[in-house]
Write a sequence for this structure.
């Protein structure tokens, strides 16, 4: 019996095209999903390796319910959290600078550059923040402690926000260029635009969609309005840093227990734990989705193989009459299923490699190694190939169970 795929599918071209297309789609989507999860895991491991220590943030529990700038009154929970944070700040203000404590003031403001404007989160902070967690500077620089003390009107912008503003601005060679004396209107002031940054996934303070100004400049940029007043960030470093900060919080809880109930603690270790859990959930989700996709391809392949088995009924009868065993017929089905599966998988693998190569640019994740890409392709392709082989084998083995006389009738 011939194992040529072209002759085997003769007369069922449209159904073969559907089956191959389903297998290609299954392989491509599954491989890309597995590669995306692998790239996310690699990014998290890389950021963990570069993290300077466990960063602790004390913030109002109701921070997610940030007040609008045009609100006359904040919700009671936000007001309580604001008072608690201000009291806590006053309590730890005399703390030695070796604790590497940075204060944050947060609100929402308007940002304008060139002909483009956006609403964005405004963060007033200290230069100490730049030493507490890793920042990636894409263009320009961060402000210094000397500039902070002098009150220089400078602003640093998150990359996502910068890209959003830059789409309407001038470009050079297809890319936006940050001039040395660029100006940006933030709130009510024009500030000197000095840098574009991103924060890591596990960073305590996320800045990708925000603008950062020195804390002493914050009140000038943002007129008094309802907002989240402050938060504290500290680095764990031996006997200083987060242990001292948490001890200060415990002292504050004994001093003002009602206010302390409005404060919460977030650490980068917590974030890493949450991200690890999310990574596991994504892996399980991708496996489940891959199974669903494989089942859809399996249905198309099954329909094709049943149709082919009917078309090859007489050929199988002749082969059985000439002495071919049931195993030989089953192997024939496995060969056809293998050829069909590999055809679809190869087509899907080409599409998957093209998409995977763009993942670092599309999702801002670490590029994968060759071995990781191959692993993702195998994870995405194996179910489709295995399903095709099993369906082909089972279909022709079932056909071979009949007697030659019945097949030739």
């Amino acid at each position: 019996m011939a194992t040529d795929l072209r002759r085997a599918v003769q007369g069922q071209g449209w159904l073969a095209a559907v089956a191959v297309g389903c297998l290609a789609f299954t392989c491509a989507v599954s491989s890309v999903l597995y590669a995306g999860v692998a790239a996310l895991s690699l990014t998290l491991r890389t950021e963990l390796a570069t993290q300077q220590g466990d960063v602790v943030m004390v913030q109002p529990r109701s921070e997610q319910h940030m007040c609008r700038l045009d609100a006359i009154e904040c919700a009671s929970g936000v007001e309580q959290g604001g008072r608690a944070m201000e009291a806590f700040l006053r309590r730890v203000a005399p703390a030695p600078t070796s604790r590497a404590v940075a204060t944050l003031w947060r609100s929402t403001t308007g940002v304008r550059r060139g002909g483009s404007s956006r609403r964005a989160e405004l963060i007033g902070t200290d230069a100490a923040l730049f030493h507490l967690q890793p920042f990636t500077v894409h263009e320009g620089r961060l402000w210094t402690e000397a500039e902070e003390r002098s009150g220089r009107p400078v602003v640093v912008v998150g990359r996502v926000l910068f890209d959003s503003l830059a789409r309407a601005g001038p470009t050079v060679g297809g890319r936006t260029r940050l001039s040395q004396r660029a100006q940006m209107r933030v709130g009510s002031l024009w500030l000197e635009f000095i840098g574009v940054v991103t924060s890591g996934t596990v960073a305590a303070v996320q800045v990708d969609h925000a603008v950062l100004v020195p804390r002493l400049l914050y009140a000038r940029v943002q007129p008094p309005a309802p907002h989240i007043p402050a938060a504290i960030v500290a680095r764990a470093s031996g006997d200083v840093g987060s242990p001292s900060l948490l001890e200060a919080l415990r002292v504050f809880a004994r001093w003002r227990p009602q206010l302390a109930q409005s404060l919460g603690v977030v650490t980068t270790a917590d974030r890493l734990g949450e991200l690890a859990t999310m990574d596991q959930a994504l892996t399980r989700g991708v496996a489940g989705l891959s199974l669903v996709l494989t089942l859809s391809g399996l249905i198309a392949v099954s329909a094709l193989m049943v149709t082919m088995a009917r078309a090859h009924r007489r050929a199988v009868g002749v082969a059985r009459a000439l002495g071919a065993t049931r195993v030989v017929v089953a192997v024939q089905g496995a060969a056809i299923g293998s050829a069909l599966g590999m055809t679809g998988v190869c087509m899907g693998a080409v599409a998957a490699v093209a998409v995977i190569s763009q993942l670092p640019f599309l999702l801002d994740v670490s590029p994968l190694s060759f071995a990781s890409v191959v692993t993702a392709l195998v994870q995405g392709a194996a179910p489709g190939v295995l399903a095709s082989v099993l369906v082909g084998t089972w279909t022709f083995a079932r056909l071979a169970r009949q007697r030659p006389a019945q097949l030739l009738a």
The longest helix spans residues 268-311.
